[in-house]
Amino acid sequence: MSFDGLVQIKKAIGMLSPKEVRDLSQREVKIALHAPDTQAFEQMESFLLHELKPARRRESADMLIRNPSSTNQADVNIYHANVKAPSKSLIYFPEQPNVVVAKTLKEYPDLAIALARSFQPFRGPYVKNVVADVCKENTLFCLATAVPDVMGIPFITLPWSIAEFASDSAFLTMNQIRMGFMIAGASDREVGYMEQKGEIAAVIGSAFGWRALARELVGKIPFGGGLIAKAGVAYAGTKVLGVSLDHYYSMGYAYSREERNKLYAEAYQQGKSVAAKLLRMVRPDLADKLVDSDDRKHSTASAAR
Q1: Cα–Cα–Cα angle for 153, 158, 163, nearest 5°?
Q2: What is the pTM of this model?
Q3: If pLDDT is split at 50, 70 and 90, which confidence band does 303 have?
Q4: How many domains does the chain have?
Protein backbone atom coordinates (compact mmCIF):
# COMPACT_ATOMS: atom_id res chain seq x y z
CA MET A 1 0.00 0.00 0.00
CA SER A 2 1.31 3.46 -0.91
CA PHE A 3 2.09 6.25 1.53
CA ASP A 4 -0.99 8.08 0.22
CA GLY A 5 -3.07 5.05 1.11
CA LEU A 6 -1.84 5.13 4.69
CA VAL A 7 -2.55 8.86 4.89
CA GLN A 8 -6.11 8.22 3.70
CA ILE A 9 -6.57 5.52 6.31
CA LYS A 10 -5.25 7.82 9.03
CA LYS A 11 -7.65 10.55 7.94
CA ALA A 12 -10.58 8.10 7.91
CA ILE A 13 -9.73 6.78 11.37
CA GLY A 14 -9.82 10.35 12.63
CA MET A 15 -13.56 10.34 11.96
CA LEU A 16 -14.14 7.66 14.57
CA SER A 17 -15.19 8.36 18.15
CA PRO A 18 -14.29 5.57 20.58
CA LYS A 19 -15.69 7.74 23.38
CA GLU A 20 -19.16 7.50 21.87
CA VAL A 21 -18.98 3.71 21.84
CA ARG A 22 -17.48 3.68 25.33
CA ASP A 23 -20.24 5.87 26.73
CA LEU A 24 -22.98 3.79 25.14
CA SER A 25 -21.51 0.54 26.42
CA GLN A 26 -21.06 1.82 29.97
CA ARG A 27 -24.60 3.06 30.31
CA GLU A 28 -26.47 1.50 33.22
CA VAL A 29 -29.56 -0.26 31.94
CA LYS A 30 -32.29 -0.98 34.45
CA ILE A 31 -34.33 -4.10 33.70
CA ALA A 32 -37.63 -4.64 35.48
CA LEU A 33 -38.58 -8.28 35.96
CA HIS A 34 -42.26 -9.11 36.31
CA ALA A 35 -42.82 -12.60 37.71
CA PRO A 36 -45.42 -14.50 39.77
CA ASP A 37 -43.16 -15.79 42.55
CA THR A 38 -39.65 -16.01 43.95
CA GLN A 39 -38.78 -19.10 41.97
CA ALA A 40 -39.69 -17.39 38.70
CA PHE A 41 -37.65 -14.33 39.65
CA GLU A 42 -34.62 -16.46 40.44
CA GLN A 43 -35.03 -18.30 37.16
CA MET A 44 -35.00 -15.05 35.18
CA GLU A 45 -32.12 -13.59 37.17
CA SER A 46 -30.06 -16.73 36.80
CA PHE A 47 -30.49 -16.58 33.04
CA LEU A 48 -29.53 -12.92 32.77
CA LEU A 49 -26.54 -13.15 35.13
CA HIS A 50 -25.23 -16.43 33.74
CA GLU A 51 -21.42 -16.75 33.28
CA LEU A 52 -20.59 -13.26 34.53
CA LYS A 53 -17.45 -12.68 36.56
CA PRO A 54 -18.14 -11.91 40.27
CA ALA A 55 -17.58 -8.15 40.07
CA ARG A 56 -19.62 -7.77 36.89
CA ARG A 57 -22.32 -10.06 38.29
CA ARG A 58 -22.75 -7.84 41.36
CA GLU A 59 -23.00 -4.70 39.24
CA SER A 60 -25.44 -6.28 36.81
CA ALA A 61 -27.57 -7.74 39.59
CA ASP A 62 -28.08 -4.21 40.91
CA MET A 63 -29.62 -3.29 37.55
CA LEU A 64 -32.45 -5.81 37.97
CA ILE A 65 -35.68 -4.70 39.66
CA ARG A 66 -38.33 -7.13 40.86
CA ASN A 67 -41.95 -6.16 40.22
CA PRO A 68 -41.52 -2.37 40.25
CA SER A 69 -44.53 -0.26 41.14
CA SER A 70 -44.24 1.45 37.76
CA THR A 71 -42.79 0.34 34.45
CA ASN A 72 -41.16 3.79 34.23
CA GLN A 73 -38.68 2.72 36.91
CA ALA A 74 -36.75 0.71 34.35
CA ASP A 75 -35.42 1.08 30.81
CA VAL A 76 -36.63 -2.38 29.84
CA ASN A 77 -39.53 -4.41 31.22
CA ILE A 78 -39.52 -8.20 30.86
CA TYR A 79 -42.49 -10.35 31.84
CA HIS A 80 -42.42 -13.99 32.83
CA ALA A 81 -44.68 -16.13 30.68
CA ASN A 82 -46.78 -16.99 33.75
CA VAL A 83 -47.88 -13.43 34.48
CA LYS A 84 -50.36 -11.25 32.64
CA ALA A 85 -48.53 -8.76 30.47
CA PRO A 86 -49.56 -5.82 28.28
CA SER A 87 -49.78 -6.48 24.56
CA LYS A 88 -46.49 -6.47 22.63
CA SER A 89 -44.50 -6.94 25.83
CA LEU A 90 -41.15 -8.68 26.12
CA ILE A 91 -41.96 -12.16 27.38
CA TYR A 92 -39.52 -14.53 29.04
CA PHE A 93 -40.33 -18.15 28.15
CA PRO A 94 -38.45 -20.57 30.45
CA GLU A 95 -38.22 -23.20 27.70
CA GLN A 96 -36.99 -20.64 25.12
CA PRO A 97 -35.21 -17.87 27.05
CA ASN A 98 -33.25 -16.59 24.05
CA VAL A 99 -36.46 -15.46 22.35
CA VAL A 100 -36.69 -12.46 24.68
CA VAL A 101 -33.03 -11.64 24.01
CA ALA A 102 -33.54 -11.29 20.26
CA LYS A 103 -36.72 -9.28 20.69
CA THR A 104 -35.16 -6.94 23.27
CA LEU A 105 -32.17 -6.19 21.03
CA LYS A 106 -34.56 -5.41 18.19
CA GLU A 107 -36.82 -3.22 20.32
CA TYR A 108 -34.01 -1.31 22.02
CA PRO A 109 -31.15 -0.84 19.51
CA ASP A 110 -29.75 2.16 21.42
CA LEU A 111 -29.38 0.00 24.55
CA ALA A 112 -28.05 -3.07 22.75
CA ILE A 113 -24.34 -2.61 23.43
CA ALA A 114 -24.97 -1.76 27.10
CA LEU A 115 -27.17 -4.83 27.50
CA ALA A 116 -24.46 -6.96 25.90
CA ARG A 117 -21.80 -5.59 28.24
CA SER A 118 -23.84 -6.15 31.40
CA PHE A 119 -25.72 -9.36 30.61
CA GLN A 120 -24.04 -12.35 28.97
CA PRO A 121 -27.11 -13.69 27.05
CA PHE A 122 -27.20 -10.49 25.00
CA ARG A 123 -23.50 -10.51 24.16
CA GLY A 124 -23.28 -13.25 21.53
CA PRO A 125 -26.38 -12.17 19.56
CA TYR A 126 -25.34 -8.52 19.68
CA VAL A 127 -21.82 -9.21 18.41
CA LYS A 128 -23.21 -11.47 15.70
CA ASN A 129 -25.52 -8.67 14.56
CA VAL A 130 -22.70 -6.11 14.58
CA VAL A 131 -20.41 -8.32 12.51
CA ALA A 132 -23.20 -9.09 10.03
CA ASP A 133 -24.10 -5.41 9.66
CA VAL A 134 -20.53 -4.23 9.13
CA CYS A 135 -19.87 -7.06 6.66
CA LYS A 136 -22.89 -5.95 4.66
CA GLU A 137 -21.87 -2.28 4.86
CA ASN A 138 -18.39 -3.04 3.57
CA THR A 139 -19.74 -5.24 0.80
CA LEU A 140 -22.21 -2.56 -0.19
CA PHE A 141 -19.50 0.09 -0.19
CA CYS A 142 -17.38 -1.92 -2.62
CA LEU A 143 -20.36 -2.29 -4.93
CA ALA A 144 -21.48 1.32 -4.60
CA THR A 145 -18.10 2.76 -5.54
CA ALA A 146 -18.37 0.90 -8.85
CA VAL A 147 -22.15 0.88 -9.36
CA PRO A 148 -23.79 4.05 -7.94
CA ASP A 149 -27.28 2.59 -8.45
CA VAL A 150 -26.62 0.22 -5.56
CA MET A 151 -27.10 3.11 -3.17
CA GLY A 152 -30.79 2.96 -4.07
CA ILE A 153 -31.22 -0.22 -2.03
CA PRO A 154 -33.75 0.51 0.73
CA PHE A 155 -33.25 -0.44 4.39
CA ILE A 156 -29.43 -0.28 4.11
CA THR A 157 -27.81 2.95 5.28
CA LEU A 158 -24.07 3.41 5.32
CA PRO A 159 -22.83 5.34 8.37
CA TRP A 160 -20.86 7.78 6.19
CA SER A 161 -21.10 9.30 2.75
CA ILE A 162 -19.14 7.56 0.02
CA ALA A 163 -17.81 10.93 -1.14
CA GLU A 164 -15.89 11.29 2.13
CA PHE A 165 -13.48 8.49 1.24
CA ALA A 166 -10.69 8.46 -1.31
CA SER A 167 -10.27 4.67 -1.33
CA ASP A 168 -11.95 1.41 -0.47
CA SER A 169 -9.15 0.59 1.93
CA ALA A 170 -9.75 3.76 3.97
CA PHE A 171 -13.45 3.07 4.40
CA LEU A 172 -13.08 -0.64 5.10
CA THR A 173 -10.30 -0.09 7.62
CA MET A 174 -12.22 2.60 9.47
CA ASN A 175 -15.41 0.56 9.53
CA GLN A 176 -13.56 -2.50 10.81
CA ILE A 177 -11.99 -0.48 13.62
CA ARG A 178 -15.45 0.85 14.50
CA MET A 179 -16.60 -2.76 14.66
CA GLY A 180 -13.65 -3.54 16.92
CA PHE A 181 -14.69 -0.78 19.31
CA MET A 182 -18.26 -2.12 19.43
CA ILE A 183 -17.20 -5.73 20.01
CA ALA A 184 -14.84 -4.65 22.81
CA GLY A 185 -17.54 -2.56 24.46
CA ALA A 186 -20.04 -5.40 24.28
CA SER A 187 -17.42 -7.81 25.68
CA ASP A 188 -16.85 -5.65 28.79
CA ARG A 189 -13.37 -4.69 27.55
CA GLU A 190 -11.68 -1.30 27.39
CA VAL A 191 -12.54 0.73 24.31
CA GLY A 192 -10.12 3.13 22.62
CA TYR A 193 -7.07 3.56 20.43
CA MET A 194 -4.51 2.98 23.16
CA GLU A 195 -6.61 0.34 24.91
CA GLN A 196 -6.93 -1.64 21.66
CA LYS A 197 -3.67 -0.71 19.94
CA GLY A 198 -2.81 -4.34 19.18
CA GLU A 199 -6.18 -5.03 17.58
CA ILE A 200 -6.11 -1.75 15.61
CA ALA A 201 -2.62 -2.51 14.31
CA ALA A 202 -3.88 -5.87 13.09
CA VAL A 203 -6.79 -4.19 11.26
CA ILE A 204 -4.53 -1.66 9.55
CA GLY A 205 -2.07 -4.41 8.64
CA SER A 206 -4.83 -6.47 7.06
CA ALA A 207 -5.65 -3.57 4.76
CA PHE A 208 -2.41 -4.27 2.86
CA GLY A 209 -3.43 -7.84 2.10
CA TRP A 210 -7.02 -6.94 1.28
CA ARG A 211 -6.02 -4.30 -1.25
CA ALA A 212 -3.48 -6.54 -2.96
CA LEU A 213 -5.87 -9.48 -3.23
CA ALA A 214 -8.82 -7.39 -4.40
CA ARG A 215 -6.74 -5.69 -7.08
CA GLU A 216 -5.44 -9.02 -8.30
CA LEU A 217 -8.95 -10.43 -8.61
CA VAL A 218 -10.32 -7.38 -10.41
CA GLY A 219 -7.30 -7.14 -12.71
CA LYS A 220 -7.62 -10.72 -13.94
CA ILE A 221 -11.25 -10.44 -15.02
CA PRO A 222 -12.31 -8.10 -17.86
CA PHE A 223 -15.31 -5.77 -18.00
CA GLY A 224 -15.64 -5.39 -14.22
CA GLY A 225 -16.31 -9.06 -13.64
CA GLY A 226 -14.08 -9.02 -10.58
CA LEU A 227 -16.47 -6.76 -8.71
CA ILE A 228 -18.31 -9.66 -7.05
CA ALA A 229 -15.01 -11.26 -6.06
CA LYS A 230 -13.70 -7.94 -4.73
CA ALA A 231 -16.82 -7.42 -2.64
CA GLY A 232 -16.50 -11.02 -1.43
CA VAL A 233 -12.97 -10.28 -0.21
CA ALA A 234 -14.21 -7.22 1.69
CA TYR A 235 -16.96 -9.28 3.30
CA ALA A 236 -14.64 -12.15 4.20
CA GLY A 237 -11.90 -9.97 5.63
CA THR A 238 -14.43 -8.12 7.78
CA LYS A 239 -16.14 -11.27 9.02
CA VAL A 240 -12.92 -13.06 9.91
CA LEU A 241 -11.77 -10.00 11.83
CA GLY A 242 -15.06 -9.69 13.72
CA VAL A 243 -15.30 -13.38 14.57
CA SER A 244 -11.65 -13.44 15.60
CA LEU A 245 -12.05 -10.46 17.93
CA ASP A 246 -15.12 -12.02 19.51
CA HIS A 247 -13.23 -15.27 20.05
CA TYR A 248 -10.23 -13.44 21.51
CA TYR A 249 -12.31 -11.35 23.93
CA SER A 250 -14.41 -14.36 24.95
CA MET A 251 -11.74 -17.06 25.19
CA GLY A 252 -8.59 -15.04 25.83
CA TYR A 253 -6.60 -16.45 22.91
CA ALA A 254 -6.61 -16.11 19.12
CA TYR A 255 -7.56 -18.54 16.38
CA SER A 256 -4.77 -20.50 14.76
CA ARG A 257 -3.72 -19.67 11.20
CA GLU A 258 -5.43 -22.84 9.97
CA GLU A 259 -8.68 -21.89 11.71
CA ARG A 260 -8.56 -18.37 10.26
CA ASN A 261 -7.93 -19.72 6.76
CA LYS A 262 -10.95 -22.00 7.06
CA LEU A 263 -13.11 -19.14 8.33
CA TYR A 264 -11.94 -16.95 5.47
CA ALA A 265 -12.70 -19.54 2.78
CA GLU A 266 -16.24 -19.97 4.10
CA ALA A 267 -16.78 -16.22 4.52
CA TYR A 268 -15.52 -15.48 1.01
CA GLN A 269 -18.20 -17.69 -0.54
CA GLN A 270 -20.82 -16.07 1.71
CA GLY A 271 -19.56 -12.65 0.72
CA LYS A 272 -19.91 -13.29 -2.98
CA SER A 273 -23.48 -14.51 -2.43
CA VAL A 274 -24.31 -11.40 -0.41
CA ALA A 275 -22.77 -9.12 -3.05
CA ALA A 276 -24.69 -10.82 -5.85
CA LYS A 277 -27.95 -10.60 -3.88
CA LEU A 278 -27.49 -6.88 -3.16
CA LEU A 279 -26.63 -6.16 -6.78
CA ARG A 280 -29.57 -8.15 -8.11
CA MET A 281 -31.95 -5.96 -6.11
CA VAL A 282 -31.16 -2.91 -8.24
CA ARG A 283 -29.21 -4.14 -11.28
CA PRO A 284 -30.22 -7.74 -12.04
CA ASP A 285 -28.87 -7.44 -15.58
CA LEU A 286 -25.43 -6.39 -14.39
CA ALA A 287 -25.44 -8.86 -11.51
CA ASP A 288 -26.05 -11.83 -13.80
CA LYS A 289 -23.18 -10.81 -16.08
CA LEU A 290 -20.76 -10.31 -13.20
CA VAL A 291 -21.70 -13.53 -11.45
CA ASP A 292 -21.35 -15.46 -14.70
CA SER A 293 -17.94 -13.88 -15.29
CA ASP A 294 -16.83 -14.77 -11.77
CA ASP A 295 -18.06 -18.35 -12.16
CA ARG A 296 -16.20 -18.75 -15.46
CA LYS A 297 -13.03 -17.45 -13.85
CA HIS A 298 -13.21 -20.00 -11.06
CA SER A 299 -14.10 -22.81 -13.45
CA THR A 300 -11.01 -21.98 -15.51
CA ALA A 301 -8.84 -21.84 -12.40
CA SER A 302 -10.17 -25.22 -11.22
CA ALA A 303 -9.49 -26.81 -14.61
CA ALA A 304 -5.94 -25.44 -14.56
CA ARG A 305 -5.31 -27.06 -11.18
Answers
A1: 100
A2: 0.85
A3: very low
A4: 2
**Are 167 and 55 members of one domain?**
no
Distance CA 245, CA 243 (A): 6
Judgement on whether residues 161 and 187 belong to the same structural domain of the protein: yes
Q: Are residues 191 and 68 in the same domain?
A: no
Residues 300 and 198 placed together within one structural domain of the fold: yes
- Say whether pLDDT at 59 is over 60: yes
Q: Within this chain, do residues 179 and 231 fall inside the same structural domain, yes or no?
A: yes
Give 259-280 pLDDT, tens digit per residue. 998 999 999 999 999 998 988 8
Same domain? For 156 and 295 the reply is yes
Domain span at residue 53 reads 27-118
Task: Give yes or no for a contact between 148 and 169, defined as CB atoms under 8 angstroms apart.
Answer: no
> 294 and 203 in one domain?
yes
**Cβ–Cβ < 8 Å for 143, 162:** no
